[in-house]
Amino acid sequence: MNHHLQMLRRAALFCAVLLSFFFSASAAEPVEVLKYPYQVQAGYVLLPWVEGMADKDLQGFVNRQLLQSVLELADSASESSLNGNFDVSFYNENMIGIRFSGYSYLPRAAHPTKLERGIHVDLRSGKRYSLAELFKADVDYHARIKELCGQEGEPYRVTTGLPEAAWTYRSFAAAWDEPEEIFLLGSDGIRVYAVPSFAQGAISGYQIPYEKLMDVIDRQGELWQAISSKKAQPVTWGASRQNNKFNKDQLQVGDRVAGLLTRTVERNGAYLSKAVFFGEIELSGTGAWSNDSGDGRAYLLTVDRAYERRLPRWDDWQQESVIRLDAGSDAKLLAQLPESALRIKVVIADYSLGERQILRVARLVKVREIGLR
Question: What are the boundaries of each domain within the chain?
């Protein structure tokens, strides 16, 4: 009997060691976070971008989730712009939390729309979490949180020292509700706050400790496990890494190539018809006006070989980098360029290419030098 008991104990110990090894080996690796500029009409936003994940497909999906979470905050009108920046509000090996602050502006509107949003994405799956997923299904978590916020003396009120401190609990309770339930998940509690109007500005809100909500939190739920099973840690801010090659069959909106962000991907069957990349690039090369651009008279730039690595290209690219420069809304820029062939240095944006495009195309942003030696 004792022999069998010892055998069982050894087997249990072996399983425990094996499981310990498995979970430690499969733990998510620390990531770096970058701030990446992205243009939305006349506005610019700094987008969150993660790097350093071993699974590059998952990393790409996480980044697309972060991209979409920010861009969907803009006014629905196609001409509205979006401006803003972000901080990392929470990070552990399971999940990242982003606090985005900014504004969206519609031309001819009286004032911009202020924006605040907490964005929480699981680094193991790319899933975006809602606040409701933290709580048991049959619980009115709005009522419970507001009850705690409205306690006498408002012990959980967040004080920033800014002019916004004049807001009242009543204004918070009126503004904080679906779909405007702005929240930030932390290691110890939830911050809830609101932006009721442009004139009034932000309501700094309340920081509710998890311990005051444990009876209504779904402790077996996916979100609570993501928060509580790994210790929160400081985020590592990374510098941009530039790789200018991509797989044309796998390129997706949100992918970063050569330091640029993929804005548009159009396909026609198996062909990559068009890909457009956001960001500015400085290039030098030989430029000249031509009547043989395939689309009427145009200014063509043959990029110097030393600068070709600054341009996105697919893996088996064999073509010379000739770019047709468009002026966009500023026709005076192209008028600066001489008729004869000369070496020039320029800044371009909105670089595009495709398998059936005759030429690469980019918008001319600035002419730096004409007549380089």
Answer: 32-237, 245-370
